[in-house]
Amino acid sequence: MPADYRFSLGPWNIHPGADPFGPPVRPPVSFDDVLTAAVDLGFSGIQLHDDDAVPNLENLPPAAVVREAAELRKRLDDHGLVAEFVAPRLWEHAHGIDGGYTSNCPKARTWAIERSKRAVDVALAVGCDLIVMWPAREGTAVRESKNPIEAARQMLEAIDAMLAVAPNVRIAIEPKPNEPVDHAFVPTIGHALALGARSSDPARVGVLIESAHAILAGLDPSDEMGFALAAGKLWSVHLNDQNGLKFDQDKVFGAANLRGAFDQVRVLEAAGYADLGGFVGFDVKAQRTQRAGAATAHLATSKRIFQMLVAKVRSFPERTANECIANRDYEALERLVLEHLLAG
Ligand code: 3MF
Ligand code: MG
Fold first, then answer.
1. Which of 45, 119, 229, 249 could form a disulfide with 88 if both were Cys (CB 3.0 to 4.6 A apart)?
2. What's the pLDDT band for 2 if we cut at 50, 70, 90?
């Protein structure tokens, strides 16, 4: 019997509904309420930005940052939760306005690396060894504004600086091809793995795949996952959905393309992802129209759909599928998949 999947969420997944065109529409949700919601929803992992874990970390000496993170670990523990990862949130700070590691301002680059090293301290103190590097603004809106050769070197330098903080820290790069930048420097899983392979310790650099990010790159999320799994590098996932090439929608898992969601679950099942120990995270956003009392429904639905798809994958008639494949009868295979998905 395969291991049970463990689910995780980040505090940003339960939020007041502001978007680039309008203010919040729901009251703010306290961090403690997020923890309670996570438990109620049957999630056991919490994903954290460094300043989710230690909100005033910019103004604290390193020892105090570690102390606060250790206190958070106790709070998580009291709820029966564990921290899955910590992500240095460079993109919201004034110094990160033009990206952190690849900023054209040397002072900003130094800040970005120092802050990332602090994020490693936070991760270790909060009880996890995983850093997620979402290179949000590491890219350009005006192509000629940065040197892509230099940018690759700078991102590698940042990775190496984080790896050097502790021998057990691991980094999962979460690539996204665009938004908030026009062109990101590490837009796909292939880029992320290639960069990791050039780091000071390739064994400690892997990836986090977000379904929507793959779709925005014009790629199939399940194939991106397969590529990373083949290399033993899929260390976390942000399952969600995306309706074509538009703003990052963070829709409920399966909401736009149920078959695509099935394929993602199928590749995770094929690799024994649950046994590998990774969490299943959902990077989903509550609709702005949602009333405050029901603003976690998107998480509950994503988890439910994931579990229903696990059952679908496990009951898929693999023998018949293999016969179709052996006969090169891919029309029959297509029908088999569609009928299986539609069957009650
Ligand atoms: C990006 C991420 C997060 C973001 C979050 C909202 C780890 O896809 O997963 O970074 O911060 O999505 O800001
Ligand atoms: Mg994400």
1. 119
2. low
